[in-house]
């Protein structure tokens, strides 16, 4: 089903994203010799995540903030879901566009519930509807409403504050979410978790998300599309992560990707995307010799010991099994486990640390799903690279530098920008 056909009924039915068109937009700051954004036409497809990356000062934040008019464009139009919002009242516009900044930007003197419910309150929702929406969103971001709704931001971890920031931006169900380096202030592990959660949330809400980051790996992991900017918001490449990695448009993009493009491919695929190996399972209390026979019959090397809720507890080799009579009740704290939503990169990390060359994969409620090994990961990279090379250009959104005087109809080359449209770059 296309994102634009999701029905809008009540607060719980998420509105799918709306297309954003940044149409021939220029930004000149007073007293600056050159425009910060020299002239850009950028189509952000509905329901997709578009990442803006580029060196410091290239105009990412300026471009982002012109969408919700926290910064007024000097020239050009912003069109949201087909509606020209360039001259609309800015406050009203911003109630239609969720905005997430570093550390969540929460109001410290307000509870989590009040923070999340702020825009709905401004929109005149009644108390019960706001309370229901707050709980629904806390559920969505995996924070127990009963525990967290009455807390103050200082009583939350950095990662939790950031998640509440996302919930607040989603509160009034806006079609568009703007995210300005939202995960810049948290440690790498929390960051990875927040990224995974955003992917999960987006799979449910399907908003149009524009996301500014310094981190190319983050762009590859989260983006449906990536815009690589150079100074003055010049679009150097606007393409899928797969294609940017497989075919960087210039040396500038290559330098931005950094080393290890092959490894970065691993952040594109998730454990969910590959076929897992089956495994032999046993329970504490099972006879070790019988279990060993099952392992041998299956021609496996290991057995996974699971608890009564199917959560992995031990991973025993044939040799370990042969030395015991009964499988004990014990949890190995060092089990290499990855969730099914983890990227292949995360899976590989787990395998390498464990030196097992494989990892156990768990799904909902930590239930064991199967085993992933290094070979599976390598096959997936090769397949991803081939798919990227063969991908069609048909659905590419528009991304050109229009210059301050050029029009959209003009070929990008005439605006003096040699690396204008996504089409031209291929
Ligand atoms: N309020 C302002 N007044 C004058 N110049 C500004 C203003 N805000 C930004 N600039 C300039 O505009 C250019 C683009 O800034 P912008 O913040 O959009 O870049 P950025 O790519 O988001 O940078 P960073 O990655 O460092 O956050 C920079 O040269 C910056 O110095």
Account of the 3D structure:
There is one protein chain. This protein is an alpha/beta fold. It contains 16 helices and 17 strands. The protein has a six-stranded mixed beta sheet, sandwiched between helices. The chain has a five-stranded antiparallel beta sheet with strand order 5-4-1-2-17. The chain has a three-stranded mixed beta sheet with strand order 11-12-13. Helix 15 links the parallel strand 14 and strand 15. It starts with 19 loop residues before the first strand and ends in a 26-residue tail after the last strand. The structure holds adenosine-5'-triphosphate (ATP).
Compact summary:
It contains 16 helices and 17 strands.
Strand content: 15-25%
The major beta sheet can be summarized as: 6 strands, mixed
| Number of discrete helical segments | 16
Look at the structure and give the mean pLDDT: 86
Secondary-structure content class: alpha/beta
CATH architecture of the largest domain: 3-Layer(aba) Sandwich
| CATH fold naming of the largest domain | Rossmann fold
Side by side, the strands of the main sheet go: 6-7-8-3-9-10
């Amino acid at each position: 089903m296309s994102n634009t056909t999701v029905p809008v009924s009540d607060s719980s039915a998420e509105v799918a994203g709306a297309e954003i068109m940044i149409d021939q937009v220029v930004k000149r700051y007073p007293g600056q010799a050159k425009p910060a954004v020299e002239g850009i036409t950028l189509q952000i497809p509905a329901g997709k995540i578009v990442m803006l990356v580029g060196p410091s000062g290239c105009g990412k934040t300026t471009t982002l903030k012109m969408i919700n008019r926290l910064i007024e464009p000097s020239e050009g139009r912003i069109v949201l879901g087909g509606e020209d919002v360039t001259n609309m009242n800015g406050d009203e516009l911003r109630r239609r566009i969720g905005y997430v900044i570093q550390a969540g930007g929460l109001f410290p003197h307000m509870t989590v519930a009040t923070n999340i419910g702020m825009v709905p309150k401004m929109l005149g929702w009644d108390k019960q509807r706001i309370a229901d929406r707050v709980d629904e969103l806390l559920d969505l971001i995996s924070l127990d409403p009963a525990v967290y709704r009455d807390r103050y931001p200082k009583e939350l971890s950095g990662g939790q504050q950031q998640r509440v920031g996302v919930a607040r931006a989603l509160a009034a169900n806006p079609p568009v979410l703007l995210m300005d380096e939202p995960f810049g202030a948290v440690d790498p592990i929390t960051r990875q978790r927040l990224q995974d959660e955003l992917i999960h949330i987006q799979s449910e809400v399907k908003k149009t998300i524009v996301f500014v980051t310094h981190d190319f790996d983050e762009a590859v992991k989260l983006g449906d599309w990536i815009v690589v900017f150079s100074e003055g918001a010049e679009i150097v490449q606007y393409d899928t992560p797969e294609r940017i990695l497989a075919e960087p448009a210039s040396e500038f993009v290559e330098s931005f990707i950094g080393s290890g493009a092959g490894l970065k491919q691993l952040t594109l695929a998730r454990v969910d995307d590959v076929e897992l190996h089956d495994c032999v399972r046993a329970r504490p209390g099972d006879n070790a010799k019988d279990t060993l026979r099952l392992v041998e019959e299956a021609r496996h090397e290991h057995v996974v010991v699971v608890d009564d809720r199917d959560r992995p507890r031990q991973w025993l080799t044939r040799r370990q099994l042969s030395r015991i009579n009964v499988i004990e009740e014990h949890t190995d704290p060092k089990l290499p486990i990855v969730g099914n939503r983890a990227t292949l990169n995360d899976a590989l990390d787990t395998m390498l640390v464990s030196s097992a060359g494989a990892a156990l994969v768990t799904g909902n409620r930590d239930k064991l799903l199967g085993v992933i090994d290094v070979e599976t990961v390598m096959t997936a990279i090769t397949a991803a690279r081939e798919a990227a090379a063969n991908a069609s250009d048909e659905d590419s959104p528009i991304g050109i530098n229009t210059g301050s005087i050029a029009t959209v109809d003009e070929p990008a080359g005439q605006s003096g920008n040699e690396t204008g449209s996504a089409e031209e770059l291929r």
